[in-house]
Amino acid sequence: MNKVLVILGPTATGKTDLAINIAKKLNGELVSCDSRQVYKDLDIGTGKLPGGKVSYQISTNKWIIDQIPVWMYDVSSPKDQYNVSDYIKDAVAVIKDILKRHKLPIIVGGTAYYLKGLLEGIPTLGIKIDTSLREELSTMSVIALQQKLSNMSPQAFEKMNDSDRANPRRLIRAIEIVTMYPYIAKDELLDKPLALQCEVLKIGLTTPRPILNQRIDNRLLTRLDMGLIEEGQKLLEEGLSFDRMRQLGLEYGQLADLLEGKINRVEFKSRLATKIHQYAKEQMGWFKKDLDINWFDISQSSFSLEVEALVLKWYDRPINVT
RNA sequence: AGGCCUGUGGUGAAAUGGUAUCACAGCACUCUCCAAAAGUGCUUUUCUAGGUUCAAAUCCUAGCAGGCCUG
Fold it and tell me: Which bases on strand B have an atom closer than 7 Å to a protein beta carbon?
């Protein structure tokens, strides 16, 4: 059975660095699982650029960092909306290709929803987005949407919890599913969850919140030195709207406020730090529910050796000897 | 030293003398195509001491703290 290694965890835990080291030892290639690294030109803010003197080059469909291929960066323009469905399709194709070349795919990511979708599948993904339906529904109030859904399918409405029933986005998707239900498009790639086709080992990196927050703050200063604000400026010049930047969240959301003059640099730094702290916390909340993760505390100096030992034991045979 | 102004959750604000409210932060959650998104719930307040009043964040007195002005 094919093997796939997953390295996950909240932001600023050094997932990519660890993954590259493992990739060097096991002849692996990285597959990013990050909902923002998929966008071209979001480099500093999404942490694509390696730090220090590490070499990297960007070719048409992948990056090569420190000699290791990294996939799933730059697969969409930031002006377009890229979503889980797109991600799963593209990432599955990339992973199959890596396996075909007898290399180890190392999925590196912090977007838990994408990772979950990639490994376990999302059944309703076969029901396509109906743009005109969405447009029509977007003008309706939450209450009207609730009524429409419960008229169309009381069961579907019952299944939702109070939070989702107050969430227009979820209501619209539920209506979309109910409307389209008999017409599920067959999509081979999306039919078989990766977890059923491969042997998956999940490594989780984390550390206590105060340490993590400190790491986030330090990294933010580094990113500012690397030209984070200039990156935002450049995106604007390339025609990315303030609204779209805000949708991209975190760094880019705050950059939009800064560049539009709504906040100053001091506010920018402190708000952004807060946002990233919150984000890291949300990420952990999601990962905590997955009991299949082997966790390591990155503040323990021995952690990387322990990860390596576990991964080697799991992988046990070098692939090029087969 | 004198004069003036201001004291409301952790922060910033709101409240004709009549249920102290909002935003942010914090905490706990939800999620089967926007997930760095979107949504839900919870916690925490009237500087101190008196007084007026049926009723005080609001009016009065004193104190304390901060700001501004004057010599």
Answer: 25-40
Class of residue A50 by CB neighbours under 10 A (exposed 0-12, middle 13-18, buried 19+): middle
> Are A251 and A272 spatial neighbours (Cβ–Cβ below 8 Å)?
yes
B14 C1' to A255 CA distance, Å: 30
Task: Say which residue the tokens 């990519």 belong to.
Answer: A16
**Residue indicated by tokens 């992973």:** A95
Rounded distance, CA A276 to CA A237, Å? 25
What φ, ψ does residue A62 adopt, rounded to 5°?
A: -155, 165
Model ipTM? 0.89
Q: CA of A98 vs C1' of B8, distance in Å?
A: 62
Interatomic distance A274 CA / B24 C1' (Å):
11
Could you give the percent of chain A with pLDDT greater than 70?
94
By residue count, chain A amounts to 322
Tokens 């960007």 -> residue: A58
Quick: pLDDT tens for A206-224.
999 999 999 999 999 999 9
